[in-house]
Amino acid sequence: MARYTGPKHRLARQVGVNLLDKTSQSLQRRLAVPPGVHGKKRKKKLSEFGLQMREKQKAKIMYGLLERQLKRLVQTVQTKKGETGEMILAMLETRLDNVVYRLGFTKSRNMARQIVGHGHVLVNGKKVSIPSYQVKIDDVITLSLKMMKNLKVIESLEEKEGNVLAFLKKEKVGGKLVRMPKKDDLEVPFNMQLIIEYYSR
Fold it and tell me: Which of 29-33, 141-145, 156-160 has the highest mean pLDDT?
């Protein structure tokens, strides 16, 4: 299945929650009405499967994942010891594109995915062009010299100055993962248990 490249507002409206990296009055108005021609009239209660699918969609939209990527990630974690929900969240948050976004190098995960894919991100001084690359503790993330001069990157760094999550450490021209993310570090707009149940069917 190809990655969705259409209007992002449509995705947010589909699940009834703003999962995008920014908001607007227009989006907030649209979220109040379910999708479809008869949106205002439709108030059908979702089945258990429907609820699970909606939460799965939220995670996919938020992190920009394809179905097979999220499924593989969840199934990989389910073979390990530990709290499954927290480990899934940690793997999502330590994807390279997400870490680039969380460090404030970009204003959106989509832009972060693009600059990683174009080879502008370095991990421990080596170019990594795989957005799903799993960042490890003490990995140092920096941008190429060309990208550090990019106006959008400069603007993003100024906007997010000093606003970095506890599991990351921001440095002048880079940052690193100091520990694995925990559930208490984040507020996510989806129910992780329902996602686990969906892929455990």
Answer: 141-145
Note whether residue 26 is domain-resident.
yes
Pairwise CA distance, residues 41 & 67, whole Å: 30
Quick one: 38 and 13 in the same domain? yes
Q: Which domain holds residue 56?
A: 8-91+188-199
User: Which pTM value belongs to this model?
Assistant: 0.81
pLDDT in tens, 101-111: 999 999 999 99
- Asked if residue 55 lies in contact with residue 48, where contact means CB atoms within 8 angstroms, the answer is no
Residue 3 belongs to a domain: no
- Whether 122 and 163 map to the same domain: the answer is yes
